[in-house]
Design goal:
The complex is a heterodimer. By secondary structure, chain A is an all-alpha fold. Chain A has a domain of about 170 residues: MetI-like fold (Orthogonal Bundle). Chain A contains twelve helices and two strands, in the order ααββαααααααααα. Chain A has a two-stranded antiparallel ribbon. In chain A, helix 7 crosses helix 9, helix 7 crosses helix 10 and helix 11 runs antiparallel to helix 12. The longest helix of chain A has about 35 residues. By secondary structure, chain B is an alpha+beta fold. Chain B has two domains: about 230 residues, Rossmann fold (3-Layer(aba) Sandwich); about 100 residues, Beta Barrel (OB fold (Dihydrolipoamide Acetyltransferase, E2P)). Chain B has nine helices and 18 strands. In chain B, the strands form four sheets. Chain B has a six-stranded mixed sheet, with helices on both faces. A five-stranded antiparallel sheet of chain B has the order 13-17-14-15-16. Chain B is elongated, with a radius of gyration of 25 Å. Chain B starts with a strand and ends with a strand. The chains are: A mainly alpha, B alpha+beta.
Chain lengths: ~260, ~350
């Protein structure tokens, strides 16, 4: 009974912030001091799916493209780096760790502003690749930290054993290392995806208004003061992230960390 | 024909030489154990044979073919580690079939081999078990089966029993011997446990300080050690020299100074009363008991003879106490002179 009450509390506190969004998205008339909308309507959703439909769809595509590319790049670079930091000792290891943490500690605005000039000079500003790079500066440290944690509990003898049983180095990576660290990879991928998905400032600065991601559209809609529409777009914005979270939670619940139930 | 031959293998970690110029051969169908204290470099040797480490010098031959240039996966040697290292994301049958899958063996043949090996290793019916559902002993058996199923020219076992408790260890040891007889697999077995090495192997190679001290049948190493260190490794502290020892009192005085040893359990010990009844008074030495340690099956006595020599004696259910005067007899045929 107590467990159920607790679960209910958690559920309510987690979903509470979304409630106003849902209400706004279906509100036609909602003035102070009314607690709930005085009139309901589908105007906002109609706007999202028809009038601004193509713009929002474009935004969804851009956001997805950016988030997926960033996640892939982040894993591609982060897994070897995390392995090196988690498994091996080398001179300058602590300093490397500190440098990798810097983009997390320093405010994103400073990082983006600082890099903006360089990106302009290197003709990376206002390009898809440039925005992926700037997203990577925030995603990569998290990926490396998660993967490093996984590898500090990793026994490389598993790989030696697989080699002795006849597996080539490449097979060892895909058939042994990968399955063992998969939970960590999923967590790291989720972090990267969500971080990139919700980037606003860095996308705006480096993208220079050319990369119209969902957060950028969202901010402009909020700025316009149309709250029902902003509420509806916010929900569209949350949905993929929420699905990604649910999917990974489902997977992690199934295998547990380290692949052992 | 020797299945495995090491010719002057030298292994280094950076600047440190772990093993220097080690030569060793394992014949077809033999169990040879590589015995040595912890940190002697035994595992390093196995890893080198398996191809996981490169020797600084020397040749490794498997089936009379040099394999120095071959990567681990191409060598006809399988290493089984101290820990079972079973892949947690695969079940028992998939773990055992891992190597066969790497060889791209056909499904039906793979299943047949897995089932046969499961039967031999007494794991029948556990095909679909998850690894975490197995006991420690079962995990170790799966690890053994995973190596055996590949029928390698040589199976390298790195202390596979050390993680098991006493009773399981005994069972597993017997299983390895049975499996070896049934499959005829050649094995190189690494251990720091002398009892284990003596019980399991056809031949024992004793590794001390990075080189092989003695190789031979278990009885040879135990009863005819090559040098005092080998004797001490097998628990024999009785190392004496003919020149300044009590043995000079005996009839056959050696002209030249020689070192000899006698196993503590071969020394006969009598109390003063028993001594009077002993038929032969020859080779009897008077001494004082200076230590009594009960070790279970046998009790370890330390006896001071002629005011300077400390002799260790092992006997069952002794009725001696510290300070007691006793008589020791060392049977001539039990005395071993070092070469």
């Amino acid at each position: 009974m107590r467990g159920k009450t607790l679960l209910l509390c958690v559920l309510v506190s987690v979903t509470l912030p979304f409630l106003p969004l849902m209400l706004w998205s279906v509100a036609d008339k909602w003035y102070y001091p009314a607690l709930f909308p005085q009139a309901f309507g589908t105007r906002a959703w109609f706007y999202v799916f028809t009038t601004a439909g193509s713009q929002i769809l474009d935004g969804l595509f851009t956001s997805f493209g950016l988030a997926l590319t960033t996640t892939a790049a982040s894993l591609l670079l982060g897994v070897p780096a995390g392995r090196a930091l988690g498994l091996y000792d080398f001179p300058g290891k602590k300093l490397t760790m500190l440098f990798l943490t810097l983009p997390i500690i320093v405010p994103p605005l400073s990082v983006s502003m600082g890099l903006h000039l360089w990106f302009i000079r290197l003709e990376l500003a206002e390009t898809f690749f440039g925005v992926v790079l700037i997203h990577l500066t925030f995603c990569l440290p998290y990926t490396i930290f998660v993967i490093r944690g996984v590898f500090s509990n990793y026994n490389p003898d598993f790989e030696a054993q697989a080699r002795s049983l006849g597996a080539s180095p490449l097979t060892v990576i895909f058939r042994v290392m990968f399955p063992v660290i998969l939970p960590g990879i999923i967590v790291a991928a989720l972090f990267s995806f969500l971080l990139s998905w919700s980037q606003y400032l860095s996308t705006l600065i480096i993208g220079g208004g050319k990369m119209l991601t969902l957060p950028i559209l969202l901010f402009s809609l909020i700025g316009s003061g149309d709250r029902p529409v902003a509420g509806a777009v916010s929900l569209v914005f949350i949905l993929p992230a929420f699905l990604a979270l649910l999917g990974s939670a489902h997977y992690l619940g199934r295998t547990g960390l380290k692949g052992i139930r | 024909m020797s299945q495995l031959e090491l010719q002057n293998i030298t292994i280094q970690y950076g600047e440190t030489t772990i093993i220097s110029a080690l030569s060793l051969s394992v014949e077809n169908g033999e169990i040879v154990s590589l015995l040595g204290p912890s940190g002697a470099g035994k595992t390093t040797i196995l890893k080198t044979i398996a191809g996981l480490l490169q020797p600084a010098d020397g040749q490794i031959l498997i089936n009379n073919i040099s394999v120095n240039h071959l990567p681990a996966e191409k060598r006809d040697a399988v290493l089984i580690f101290q820990k079972p290292l079973l892949f947690p994301f695969l079940n028992v049958a998939q773990n055992i079939g891992f190597g066969l899958k790497m060889q791209k063996m056909k499904q039906r043949e793979t299943e047949r081999k897995i089932n046969r090996i499961l039967e031999i290793t007494e794991l029948k019916g556990l095909n679909n078990r998850k690894i975490h559902q197995l006991s420690g002993g079962q995990q170790q058996r799966v690890a053994l089966a995973r190596g055996l199923v590949l029928e390698p020219a040589i199976l390298l076992l790195d202390e596979p029993l050390s993680n098991l408790d006493a009773e399981l260890r005994q069972q597993m040891r017997e299983l390895i011997q049975t499996v070896q007889q049934q499959t005829g697999t050649t094995m190189l077995f690494v251990t720091h446990d002398q009892a284990e090495a003596l019980a399991i192997s056809d031949r024992v190679c004793l590794l001390l300080d990075g080189s092989l001290r003695q190789t031979g049948r278990p009885e040879e190493l135990f009863y005819s050690p090559a040098d005092p260190e080998v004797a001490r490794f097998f628990g024999c502290d009785n190392i004496f020299t003919t020149a300044d020892s009590f043995r000079q009192q005996s009839d056959d005085v050696q002209n030249e100074q020689k070192m000899f040893t006698i196993r503590p359990e071969d020394i006969e010990i009598y109390s003063s009363d028993q001594q009077r009844e002993t038929a032969s008074h020859q080779h009897l030495f008077e001494g004082t008991v200076t230590g009594v340690v009960f070790e279970g099956r046998l009790t370890k006595l330390t006896v001071k003879v002629m005011a300077k020599e400390h002799v260790t004696v092992l006997c069952s259910r002794p009725a001696f106490h510290i300070g007691q005067t006793v008589w020791l007899r060392m049977p001539e045929d039990r005395i071993h002179f070092f070469p």
